[in-house]
């Protein structure tokens, strides 16, 4: 099983430790992991802003860079969703099947569904509150969406439960949007911040020391509010917890 490690541009620039933790975690499971050099943006910001031609050129570049891998795995639910859902349309004129739903995974979904570990030699003696990102819940199935009235499940909770000494909680209205939404946070900044603060306060109400989740973008948005208002909680990507001690 040959894995191409995809590190989104904003993770590489702002949260490089998440990329390092992702590599360590995948290697810990004995997987053949390669990090293709000179990776760029997957094209999601350009596509969301209406610049489809710019997004197409980036999609084409990424499709070529990750050719030959059995799986493409990255620590970002939103980027994984963009590749899975939009590359087939952006690259519809290519003579081969582009990166698609059979190949691209968010790292949490990949570990939970493909690797299926029964134990993990990691310890994190802290109380953490799970943040369920919109893309992760509703497009990747990382947890159960409340509006569908289906039995509860959470792949993030399942993975965290393998970590020793951890206490796991979830906030009231666990799958409500934090307000980031990419371009939304720029175009509707006041609404975005209000939603983010509401979300952070629900996490704080659990008594957690950390907010954790599968999307650094959501965590970044909430961390900005936490830092600006000096609130008593921190953020940490789930792979940083899972890779503790590796």
UniProtKB/TrEMBL annotation:
Q: Under the GO molecular function aspect, what terms does this record hold?
A: oxidoreductase activity
* InterPro entries the record matches: Cys_rich_dom
Chain segments annotated as coiled-coil in the UniProt record: none
Q: Which Pfam families match?
A: CCG
- From the UniProt annotation, give the residues forming the signal peptide: none
- GO CC, one annotated term: cytosol
Q: Which residues form the Cysteine-rich domain?
A: 4-83, 128-221
Name of this protein: (Fe-S)-binding protein
Organism of derivation: Candidatus Cryptobacteroides merdipullorum
């Amino acid at each position: 099983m040959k894995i191409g490690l995809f590190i989104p541009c904003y993770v590489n620039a702002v949260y490089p430790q998440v990329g390092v933790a992702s590599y360590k975690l995948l290697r810990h499971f004995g997987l053949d992991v390669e990090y293709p050099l000179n990776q760029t943006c997957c094209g999601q910001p350009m596509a969301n802003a209406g610049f489809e031609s710019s997004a197409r050129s980036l999609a084409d570049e990424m499709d070529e860079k990750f050719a030959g891998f059995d799986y493409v795995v990255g620590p970002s639910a939103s980027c994984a969703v963009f590749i899975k859902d939009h590359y087939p349309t952006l690259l519809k004129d290519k003579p081969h099947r582009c990166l698609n739903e059979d190949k691209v995974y968010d790292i949490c979904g990949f570990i939970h569904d493909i690797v299926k570990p029964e134990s993990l030699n990691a310890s994190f003696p802290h109380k953490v509150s799970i943040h369920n990102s919109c893309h992760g819940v509703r497009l990747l199935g990382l947890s159960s969406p409340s509006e569908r009235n289906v039995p509860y499940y959470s792949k993030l909770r399942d993975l965290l439960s393998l970590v020793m000494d951890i206490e796991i909680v979830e906030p009231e209205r666990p799958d409500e949007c934090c307000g980031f939404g990419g371009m939304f946070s720029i175009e509707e900044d006041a609404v975005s911040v209000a939603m983010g603060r509401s979300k952070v306060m629900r996490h704080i109400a659990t008594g957690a020391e950390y907010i954790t989740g599968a999307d650094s973008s959501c965590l970044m948005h909430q961390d900005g509010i936490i830092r600006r208002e000096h609130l008593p909680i921190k953020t940490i990507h789930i792979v940083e917890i899972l890779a503790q001690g590796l």
